[in-house]
Design a protein that fits this description.
By secondary structure, this protein is mainly α. It is 52% helix and 0% strand.
Amino acid sequence: LDTAVIEGRLDLCCCLLERGVALRVSETAREGGHSTPVQKALRYKQDTLLACFIDYLEKKSPALLAQVLYEAVIGDQPEAVARFLGRNLDWDTRFEGGANLVHFAVSPQVYDLLISMGVDGLQKDELGIDVLSKWLVDRNDLMVLHWFKHAPVLPIAANDYIQWAMAATKRSNLDILRRLFRLSVSEDQDMTATTRTELLAWILCFAIEERVDLDTLKFLIDQGALIDGRDLDNKTPLMVAAQRNNLYYLKVLLKAGADPDLVDANARTALMYAVIHRSVKCIDPLAQHTRNL
């Protein structure tokens, strides 16, 4: 069967399959590249042979048919992927790491085909990572921006929203942040923050923690992040800046009206954080603005 594929012998391939020759789809370890008949057909773009294999597996082994599609996706072959439209296939099949097919798409063409087939674009792998988070971390802006064309109409879960926003904030990517902030966020029983302004306050504190550029900081404030909002630890952005000894952000926040007299759950002010963490540069300006020393 391998020889028949290499020689492009459709008649011989069909004959061998009819006589019960086993059709291998993939190899776990492919040191030499595409070693199975299916992988060879994909590699050498033997479209007629691939169609023969797909028809055969759809009747004999639908489970293996999903594996053929996986091989076409990781090989970034839109033409091959398109052959699966309308096929009898379990679109919820999980692959490496518990991820579905969209996690392995590397081009907009393949991604669009998978979405049109009904593959879930928000499915998470076994580590709880969705495809947008993966692309943000990998700095695959082409796929991230393309994802927004298929952004779901339904509200996004707050957990996912924060994860995406933090990844984009860490990279200071304002284009992605603008698109992200256009999405609506659903209430989440597991989150204490249920409003957009509260979520933005968390992200603002994270931005200061990560020392992002000033444009990103101003953008978050312009989007509605409360200057005296709270993060998960009940700290204000000013407290985070003091803790990180970031004098530049500290002055920006004070100029924007941040209140230095606010306290956290432990009754600590921003000045106390500066003293505790030996943020020497921040002590003097905070002392000058603190009303109750």
